[in-house]
């Protein structure tokens, strides 16, 4: 990208790092990266015209995409049973707990969850981060003034600002009351993370993008407890590394158009973001 002077930040830069990391971890060959990228887009892009919005075909297409990802890693798992390598797939197929191993179907389901959750969300956080830094040049200047100092808090603010997952649903296990609203045991409760991350009772000036924000008790990785994102530390690392490298190599990169947003009630996604920078 360095020599080109412009790019689609999402497809050319933001999507590449988390996708490569997940595939490298699992031992997926580079020749299959595009295959994985396209199928994760289809699974989480259901309802967006770019990926197909025909209600008669989109659900079968999603299921097919998931089945193809599962088949990919099941075949790799079979190979790793006979010829182990230094990757997560080898570790998973040879691991035993109480004398039991993961079945091929369980391995496939694990990979679909890992690659979809670990790829799409971090890609979108990075993309939202680039848009936010373009819209708030004073925050870019602050970050550039001391990259190492500001990176940890900037990463947390990007996740809060982006909130890549819009909502989850949970079931109340007991009667309770929240902000005056009674909730009965067994009722379904929708958790709107985008709202929680802009709660005036928690955040000072919540609608401001502030890379030095402290404290920053956001819920972009879910709330505390057993449902907290398993990949939070990896996501933080990827976002931090990405922006440190961008500042070092393409310090003037900025968005030059509004992002093409994913039509989704579940993922706060950016499909495309046109950016320019000084080539060298």
Anisotropy-based shape: globular
Enumerate the strands of the largest sheet in spatial order, edge to edge or round the barrel: 1-9-6
How many beta-strand elements?
9
Oligomer: single chain
H-E order: EHHHHHHHHEEEEHHEEEE
Rounded average pLDDT: 95
Sheet-strand content, in percent, reads 5-15%
Number of helices: 10
Largest sheet: 3 strands, antiparallel
CATH-derived topology: Cytochrome p450
Description:
The chain is mainly α. The protein has a single domain, classed as Cytochrome P450 (Cytochrome p450), CATH 1.10.630.10. Helices cover 50% and strands 10% of the residues. The protein contains ten helices and nine strands. It has helices spanning 9-14, 16-26, 33-44, 58-82, 88-94, 104-135, 137-145, 147-162, 193-196, 232-249; strands at residues 6-8, 167-171, 176-178, 181-183, 188-192, 254-255, 260-261, 270-272, 274-276. It has a three-stranded antiparallel β-sheet with strand order 1-9-6. α4 crosses α5 (88-94) and α6 (104-135) packs across α10. The model has no long low-confidence stretch (mean pLDDT 95).
Per-chain topology:
Elements: E1 6-8, H1 9-14, H2 16-26, H3 33-44, H4 58-82, H5 88-94, H6 104-135, H7 137-145, H8 147-162, E2 167-171, E3 176-178, E4 181-183, E5 188-192, H9 193-196, H10 232-249, E6 254-255, E7 260-261, E8 270-272, E9 274-276
Antiparallel strand pairs: 1-9, 2-5, 3-4, 6-9, 7-8
Helix pairs in contact: 2-6, 3-4, 3-6, 4-5, 4-6, 6-8, 6-10, 7-8, 8-10
């Amino acid at each position: 990208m360095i020599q080109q002077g412009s790019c689609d930040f999402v497809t050319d830069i933001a999507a590449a790092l988390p996708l490569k990391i997940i595939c490298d971890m699992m031992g997926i060959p580079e020749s299959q990266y595009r295959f994985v990228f396209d199928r994760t887009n289809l699974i989480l892009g259901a309802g967006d015209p770019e990926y197909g919005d025909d209600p008669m075909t989109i659900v079968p297409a999603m299921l097919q995409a998931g089945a193809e990802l599962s088949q990919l890693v099941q075949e790799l798992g079979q190979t790793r049973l006979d010829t182990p390598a230094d990757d997560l797939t080898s570790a998973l197929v040879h691991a035993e707990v109480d004398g039991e191993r993961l079945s091929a179907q369980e391995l496939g389901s694990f990979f679909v969850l890992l690659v979809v959750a670990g790829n799409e969300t971090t890609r979108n956080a990075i993309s939202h981060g680039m848009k936010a830094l373009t819209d708030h040049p004073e925050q870019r200047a602050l970050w550039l003034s001391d990259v190492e100092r500001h990176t940890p808090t900037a990463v947390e603010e990007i996740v809060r600002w982006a909130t890549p997952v819009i909502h989850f649903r949970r079931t109340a296990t007991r009667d309770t009351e929240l902000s005056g609203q009674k909730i009965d045991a067994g009722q379904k409760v929708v958790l709107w993370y985008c709202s929680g991350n802009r709660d005036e009772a928690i955040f000072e000036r919540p609608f401001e993008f502030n890379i030095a924000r402290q404290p920053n008790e956001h819920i972009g990785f879910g709330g505390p407890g057993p449902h907290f994102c398993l990949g939070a530390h990896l996501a933080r690392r990827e976002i931090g590394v990405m922006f440190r490298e961008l500042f070092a190599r393409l310090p003037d990169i900025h968005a030059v158009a509004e992002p093409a947003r994913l039509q989704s009630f579940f993922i706060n996604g950016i499909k495309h973001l046109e950016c320019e920078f000084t080539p060298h």
